[in-house]
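Data card: per-record layout.
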Amino acid sequence: MALLYYTLRDYTYPKVEKPFFDDRKVFAFFALGIVLGMVLYAVESYGRGASSSETLVAVVIVFAAFEELLKLIILNFPRFQRKVDTAFYGLSMGLGIAATFTFASVYVSLLDLESPGALEMVVYSLIGVQFVLLHGATTPMIGIGVARGQVRGYFTQALLLHISYSLLMIPFFVASEFLLQLAGAVLASAVVIYGYIRMHTLLLPVLIKDAKRWTAKPKTGKG
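The structure for this 223-residue chain is written out next.
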């Protein structure tokens, strides 16, 4: 919720006279994301339990594609196409997904440990922050693509970001050497932080700038 407020505050009252999105739809998409987060966690938990270490990379890629395709299917409904507010609803839905997916992942992971200490709790909480930044970046990316009518390009960016993060986290979970675990976690964190910053400071502002240009009425001369 804090990240949602932080990202949206520049695009609604009092920063702008006319908000770029409908508050009711923002919260509706956030609620939808909460439900989707639990569904995704349930599906992926079953898949992880059925997979072996030999198929881990394939499973990671399939899950990333499944998540991003589900987001695309929802955001690419005709009613949302080429509408600027779709990007904001994508952000809201993504953070809703992160809210429940993160909580379930961290909680169950800690339960799997025999006696988790403070260090384990901090580490898994930081992984939770990664999930929030991941979905907070990839889902509005897809929304921006839908708003621009450039779905393929932006979906590809979101998918590559998600796959890169997931692959970099594999050493954290499977490597026995601490340095490999640390390197994977640090690089994965850098990827999602970069993805969110790029979405927040570049992709979204440029979309708004272009939208203002699209809607500007051409000046007509007299005579």
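Known properties of this structure: The radius of gyration is 19 Å. The chain has a mean pLDDT of 90.

See the next section for split statistics.
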